[in-house]
């Protein structure tokens, strides 16, 4: 018998031996079983065409200070105005990324666009104004607000806030009209300025036995405080000399079953209480005796004359113009998973919006039929999301950005940014601007999302 035949026989014998069970003295080799084995049945991979940016350029990385969202870019009129890593402001054509002009140095991450000009802050705390078309400086005003948290232009005035401080600057000349500062030991977390009917309104958190919201009203011309009211939230509306504000009921009326929203009506100039509205309901789901306030449990917002009130298991609608004590709501909707969602208090495309407490994803509810659509069903959690028109854009913690059609909820395209960091998304004309990982990407939008 040849060597080749002997080798074949030996090989077959080995194969048979490997397939047969071993007798005593043999060793059985088995894969180790996991002590715990689970999978996520809700995991989905978004299937959409991957598109490449039309252009990408370095942009200053957003630096969040004291939980205040920085602003490193704004987009208007087919242009992008961005803060470069070198601290200079640059204007670009949104379609091509071509640079139009540069301005300044050591500029802070705080700017807004208004009526043909960009208003921003320097790191030294000066407010500046430059022209949109050529970047030429119009004026600057030394405010000393090196950590300004908001800039807002209303009418002919620029309002700048930094914590408890607020300044009013003439938008045409740069002249400082007035500056005020509340006691930093008692006032915290001031809101941006709201100008209406000759006054300026801010909300603060004030400390005492507990921390509560405080509404403060100032004269627009002088900055003098006209009045303030504790336990009042930001204005729902200011109309015909009356300020409407929801009252904060925490530790005042903590009945978990018999719930209510109270809306006070104040004289805008004097703060005199003109009246109060009460909207009541029974929370039949509150069986544990624990009071849950605010958010989806009990909060209100206005959209025109439509007053929406989140009432735990349901969302309801009232006509704000025609208040009748004890009246039933005009409409009701079931609030799905309300204990896990934060309402965004706005209406867009006939939809109400929430964010999920866990995924931070965007969720929409159609007012026409109460149906919900989730835009957090991608591969990872949401970092940044925005809606422009009928386009929903979701930046994830894996660096992917998915674009969806708001009406159909279907994915349209995906962008691979390469970074889990996202700053606010921007849009001008037919371009989406993505800030991610120190890069600004220009994406040409399909006709369906323009």
From TrEMBL:
Pfam families found in the cross-reference section: PQQ_2 (PF13360)
Annotated Pyrrolo-quinoline quinone repeat domain residues: 125-372
Domain of life assignment: Bacteria
PANTHER family registered for this protein in UniProt: CELL SURFACE PROTEIN (PTHR34512), OUTER MEMBRANE PROTEIN ASSEMBLY FACTOR BAMB (PTHR34512:SF30)
Protein name: Outer membrane protein assembly factor BamB
Native source species: Paenibacillus jilunlii
């Amino acid at each position: 018998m040849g060597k080749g035949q002997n080798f074949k026989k030996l090989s077959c014998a080995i194969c048979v031996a490997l397939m047969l069970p071993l007798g005593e003295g043999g060793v059985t080799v088995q894969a180790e079983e996991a002590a715990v084995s689970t999978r996520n049945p809700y995991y989905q991979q978004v299937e959409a065409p991957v598109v490449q940016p039309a252009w990408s350029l370095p942009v200053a990385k957003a630096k969040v200070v004291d939980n205040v969202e920085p602003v490193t870019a704004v987009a208007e009129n087919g242009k992008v105005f961005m803060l470069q890593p070198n601290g200079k402001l640059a204007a670009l054509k949104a379609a091509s990324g071509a640079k139009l002009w540069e301005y300044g140095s050591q500029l802070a991450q705080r700017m807004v666009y208004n009526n043909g000009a960009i208003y921003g802050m320097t790191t030294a705390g000066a407010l500046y104004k430059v022209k949109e078309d050529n970047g030429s400086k119009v004026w600057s005003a030394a405010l000393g607000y090196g950590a300004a948290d908001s800039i807002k232009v209303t009418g002919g005035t620029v309002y700048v806030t930094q914590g408890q401080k607020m300044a009013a600057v003439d938008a045409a000349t740069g002249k400082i009209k007035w500056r005020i500062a509340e006691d930093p030991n008692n006032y915290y977390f001031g809101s941006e300025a709201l100008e209406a009917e000759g006054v300026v309104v801010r909300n603060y958190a004030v400390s005492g036995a507990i921390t509560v919201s405080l509404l403060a009203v100032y004269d627009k011309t002088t900055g003098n405080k006209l009045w303030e009211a504790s336990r009042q939230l930001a204005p729902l509306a200011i109309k015909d000399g009356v300020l409407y504000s929801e009252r904060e009921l925490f530790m005042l009326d903590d009945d978990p079953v018999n719930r209510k929203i109270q809306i006070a009506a104040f004289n805008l100039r004097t703060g005199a209480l003109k009246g109060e509205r009460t909207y009541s309901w029974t929370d039949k789901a509150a069986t544990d005796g624990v009071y849950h306030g605010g958010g989806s449990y009990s909060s209100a917002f206005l959209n025109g004359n439509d007053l929406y009130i989140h009432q735990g298991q349901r969302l309801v609608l009232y006509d704000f113009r025609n208040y009748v004590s004890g009246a039933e709501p005009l409409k009701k909707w079931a609030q799905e998973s309300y204990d896990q969602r934060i309402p965004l208090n706005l209406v867009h495309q006939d939809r109400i919006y929430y964010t999920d407490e866990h995924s931070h994803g965007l969720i929409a509810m159609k007012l026409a039929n109460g149906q919900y659509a989730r835009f957090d069903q991608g591969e990872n959690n949401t970092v940044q999301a925005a809606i422009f028109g009928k386009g929903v854009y979701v930046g994830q913690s894996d660096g992917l950005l998915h674009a969806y059609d708001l009406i159909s909820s279907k994915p349209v395209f995906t962008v691979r940014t390469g970074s889990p960091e996202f700053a606010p998304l921007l849009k001008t004309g037919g371009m989406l601007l993505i800030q991610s990982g120190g890069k600004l990407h220009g994406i040409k939008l399909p006709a369906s999302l323009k």
